[in-house]
Design brief:
single chain, alpha/beta, MutS, DNA mismatch repair protein, domain I, Nucleotidyltransferase, domain 5, MutS, DNA mismatch repair protein, Chain A, domain 3, six-stranded mixed β-sheet, 18% strand
């Protein structure tokens, strides 16, 4: 217990799994946590005094079952193992923490998702520049970037790290400026020292400087990168040979999307639990490496037109050459998760089956290389020419390990015959003990002429030769007599004693020799880690490109034409996610979109609720995004000008816990768009201003359209709205055009045709949509009555241009749906008009609701 207390004192913030014999035990508060999270029994153990201590434990072979549960519950777990063999030590066995597992440094397969990286992020908040680093210990990927706080936030949202480490002194600033739902750990201030972090990086990469990685001038990024390495070593991960390079992330290399856009377009997560995101629709990859790369390509689309066209050329070739496509798919399906397999080598966590899978994967990679080179397609040949066959390493692994290697090294049975003479001899002894004994018996019987000689075994002196008294005069002088019986005598020989030692220690020695040879094999693989990782990267690229080709052929996608000008022309565009989820036999209604700086810079899009305005906005952004990824797009044709930023403000959301209403969040997001525009931006706005009073909203929406139109950058803009007054902007602003989504009315029903047409719409059909949703008929009748009252009072349901012009200077004017109604409704109106909803606390809201209820009861 003293030993436990000493180790626990060094890891006070972690659950300590303390190895005792064949069990991992937890004590005290740790035992309560383990019992609660793992569902194991909480008991007590006496520690030699009158007091006792709480205890909960599980067998050591169940580690994989329980460890991931603790980590996923948000706990850091320190694994304390026996560092000595209990058989060779007297007294207490020496113990120490061999690994500290946290959400960001997990290597267990049960803690990792195949198709997703498990990044640890280190964040340095400086002035004016901040730095961030992302490291995946399971694959060896290491990225660094620097920029302003907004850029850091975008990267954190994009990489979605499992854990963020930062300085204790920057905790307050982090909470104020970032999404704090992520698991964080605070490091001491001294870790973020320039010289210390720089030296750590040099030591890791075994270089004289960091110029080769292109990061030597990125001081803030290097502080974060060094802190990430410090944290890995601090959590008992000293063997990091697979982390052998640092890649810089440069904002200008990619099409920029802020975190709102990534969320609004549902790129990697759907807002609906049962919904699909774009990644789900695009992901036809066959390797986990390809799936992880595809996710990165989606979040970081290219901005370099040459690199985009290189990808498009390769996708086009795979579509054209179906024989090559089929051959490559057949091979790639058999390649394992090489990145994570090779990441386990320096950590000594790769099992024999995985190492054999690595050899097989390398063989399939080599075959893929040969197929690609045979195609004589220049871009493909250039891509695979740096893929190294590593034939010698493949042969070495296949020579050392048996073909059907086991999943656990500690049970032996993995080393092939012919690798070690001593091992083969021991195996022969172990497997054929009886036949070997029979051989000795026959040999000695022939030598001595004792026909009745037999060999036996007992616990007192092991194997012996038994000779009856009739033949004892034939016993050779070198035999050693051990025991005399009534009718026989027992002897041992040097050969028999030697064999006994061999056979009794054979299993133990076999396992020791196998482990030694296996460890030696892992050490032989280590120098090849960088080459294997480079090969895996190339295979991942081919996997992604084959995935694009598969989607293009299956869903009839076409190659986009990338232009170096600010234009956007999409013919018969479709939303890939919605299209794939349509019922069988139902065709997607495709639409054309045209945006340019000369004639049609801003489109005001009106139309009924549920008609498909948001889908049209999203599909325009997604087609642009897919083109920048190097993918074919869901359209008959697409001329897409190189776009540096996509901004969206789509869908309602709020941040009530942060004290922000839906309208405040909407304004924050819109302000972020307005302040970051460029001349190559694509802006998609949906229902701006709806979170406030009618004419406040119209005023804001009107002003935003004017600003975007008159801005020097002239961003391509799609503006969907229910404020039909904005249709009056077309005659006043030369580059604004009105469009609407068509519909058809039959009685009081409305049929959505989902087709885009020129001109504005003057109806929203809100009541009809409410009827389709199943609202009670009484409620709908009352709504129609109120609508008629409003139309009578204000002349029409929609203010005219002249009315809008008069209204705009007085944004406080609000349509009053209570005019002409009963006294109780007027009283309710008065209470509501005196209430500032944006400043209302939850408790005040409940009190206000109670007040309104009392008014209704009083008048009833």
């Amino acid at each position: 217990m003293k030993q436990h207390r000493d180790i626990k004192a060094r890891y006070p913030d972690a659950v300590l799994l303390f190895r005792v014999g064949d069990f991992y035990e937890t004590f005290g508060e740790d035992a309560h946590i383990a019992s609660r999270v793992l569902g194991i029994t909480l008991t007590k153990r006496s520690n030699g005094a009158a007091a006792s201590i709480d205890l909960a434990g599980f067998p050591h072979h169940s580690m994989d079952t329980y460890l991931h549960k603790l980590v996923k519950a948000g706990y850091r777990v320190a694994i304390c193992d026996q560092l000595e063999d209990p058989k060779s030590v007297k007294g207490i066995v020496k113990r120490g923490v061999t690994e500290l597992v946290t959400p960001g440094v997990a290597t267990s397969d049960k803690l990792l998702e195949n198709k997703t990286n498990n990044f640890l992020a280190a964040l340095y908040l400086g002035e004016p520049l901040c730095g961030v680093a992302f490291i995946d210990i399971s694959t060896g990927e290491f990225y660094a970037a620097e920029g302003n706080v907004e850029y850091m936030d975008k990267l954190l949202q994009s990489f979605q790290p499992s854990e963020v480490v930062l300085s204790k002194s920057q905790q307050k600033r982090f909470k104020e400026q970032f999404d704090t739902k992520v698991y964080t750990f605070l490091l001491d201030e001294w870790v973020f020292q320039e010289q210390y972090t720089y030296d750590l990086l040099l030591q890791q990469f075994q270089t004289q400087s960091l110029k080769g990685f292109g990061v030597s001038d990125m001081k803030a990024a290097l502080l974060a990168a060094g802190a990430a390495l410090h944290y890995l070593k601090d959590t008992e991960h000293p063997n990091l040979q697979h982390i052998n390079s640092l890649q810089r992330i440069v904002a200008n290399d990619f099409l920029w999307m802020d975190r709102f856009t990534i969320r609004n377009l549902e790129l990697v997560h759907s807002s609906d639990d049962k919904g699909s995101c774009l990644l789900d629709a695009l992901d036809n990859t066959y390797t986990p490496m390809g799936a992880r790369m595809l996710k990165r390509w989606l979040i970081f689309p290219l901005y370099d037109i040459n690199r985009i066209n290189q990808r498009l050329d390769l996708v086009g070739h795979f579509i054209k050459d179906q024989d090559l496509n089929h051959e490559l798919l057949t091979l790639i399906k058999q390649i394992g998760d090489v990145e994570r397999l090779v990441g386990k080598i320096p950590l000594k966590k790769a099992n024999p089956r995985e190492v054999m899978q690595l050899a097989k994967s390398m063989q399939f990679m080599e075959q893929m290389r040969d197929k690609c080179l045979a195609s004589e397609h220049d871009p493909l040949c250039r891509l695979v020419q740096s893929l190294l066959p590593l034939t010698d390493l493949q042969k070495r692994i296949r020579t050392v390990l048996i073909e059907d290697a086991p999943a656990q090294a500690n049970k032996g049975g993995m080393i092939a015959e012919g690798i070690s003479k001593e091992l083969d001899e021991l195996r022969t002894i172990s497997r054929s003990g009886k036949s070997y004994l029979l051989q000795i018996q026959q040999t000695e019987a022939q030598k001595t002429g004792i026909g009745s000689l037999k060999i036996a075994y007992n616990n007192v002196f092991g194997y012996y030769l038994e000779v009856t008294h009739t033949h004892k005069d034939k016993v050779p002088a070198e035999w050693i007599r051990k025991q005399t019986l009534a009718n026989a005598e027992r002897y041992v020989t040097p050969e028999l004693k030697e064999y006994e030692e061999k056979i009794l220690g054979a299993e133990e020695k076999i396992l020791a020799i196998e482990m030694q040879l296996y460890t030696q094999l892992l050490a032989e693989i280590e120098p090849y880690i960088a080459s294997i990782q480079a090969n895996a990267n190339i295979i991942a690229q081919i996997d992604c490109l084959l995935c694009f080709a598969t989607s293009a052929k299956q869903y009839n996608y076409r190659r986009p034409n990338l232009l170096d000008e600010a234009t956007l022309s999409i013919k018969a565009g479709r939303h890939p996610v919605i299209e794939q989820r349509l019922p069988p036999g139902e065709a997607y209604v495709a639409n054309d979109i045209e945006l340019n700086k000369e004639e049609q810079q801003v489109i005001i899009l009106t139309g009924p609720n549920m008609s498909g305005k948001s889908a049209l906005l999203r599909q325009t952004a997604i087609i642009t995004l897919m083109a920048h990824m190097g993918s074919f797009v869901p359209a008959d044709a697409a001329d897409i000008g190189l776009t540096d930023k996509i901004f969206t403000r789509v869908g309602a959301s709020d941040n009530l816990s942060g004290g922000e209403s839906t309208f405040m969040v909407e304004m924050n997001e819109t302000a972020s768009i307005i302040n970051n525009l460029s001349d190559r931006s694509l802006v998609l706005l949906d229902e701006i201003g709806r979170g406030t009073s009618t004419y406040d909203g119209i005023s804001l929406a009107w002003s935003i359209v004017e600003h975007l139109h008159n801005s020097a950058t002239k961003p391509k803009t799609l503006f969907a709205t229910h404020y039909h007054e904005l249709n009056e902007l077309e005659p006043q602003l030369p580059r604004v055009r009105n469009y609407h989504i068509t519909h058809k009315e039959t009685g009081n029903k409305v049929i959505f045709l989902r087709k885009l047409a020129p001109g504005g719409s003057r109806h929203s059909f809100g009541i009809q949509v409410a009827r389709m949703a199943g609202m009670p008929p009484v409620l709908l009748s009352r709504a129609e009555e109120i609508l008629k009252l409003l139309e009578e009072k204000h002349g029409s349901a929609e203010p005219t241009t002249e009315k809008v012009k008069k209204i705009l200077p007085a944004p406080n004017f609000q349509l009053n749906i209570f005019d002409g109604l009963s006294e109780d409704m007027k009283r309710i109106n008065q209470v509501l008009s005196e209430t500032d909803i944006n400043r209302l606390t939850p408790v005040e809201a409940l009190l206000k609701l109670n007040e309104l209820k009392n008014i209704v009861e009083q008048y009833n």
